[in-house]
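**User:**
Make up any protein.

**Assistant:**
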Amino acid sequence: MPSHSQASRSTLSSRAGGPLAKLTEAIISIRPAFAEAILSGNKTVELRRRIPPIEVGARLWIYVTRPVGAVAGVTVIDTILRGTPQAVWETYFDRIAINRSDFDRYFLGAREAIGIRLSKVQRIKPIGIEQLRDWKQGFHPPQVLSRITASEAKRLHQLASFEEEGGTNVVRLLRA
């Protein structure tokens, strides 16, 4: 008979990306403390109660909400995990940069928790809200996540300065 932990894990499902996964791009809004945890490598799974359809392998541009108000990084979706809040907690508690009390408060009343496992995280020189509005007319930060077109993504790449270790900036494209 499986242990409680194994039984809980079996309630998780996953959409893992393969070589044929369609690459898309999107901007995701994340609060400053959680964005910094992702950009520093302390958080590798982003939690959501709901999320629009997005492909494994998609690039997510990290929009840091106010008071920062800027795109400050980019990452790639490694896996999208769905399960009960309990199962997600038991499996990923050490990768989500949140304590149990805050986790329970966030998922209160939810039957499903969604974890977006992130990889290839890159910090970029922040692209502020005014630059973003020049980049895309009428830009408003998404409440959750907003897809962007290939041409919008190309222009966003042109604005991005990717930071390398040691603090030097180089412009380069992140390849999934």
Remarks:
- The chain has one domain: 4-136.
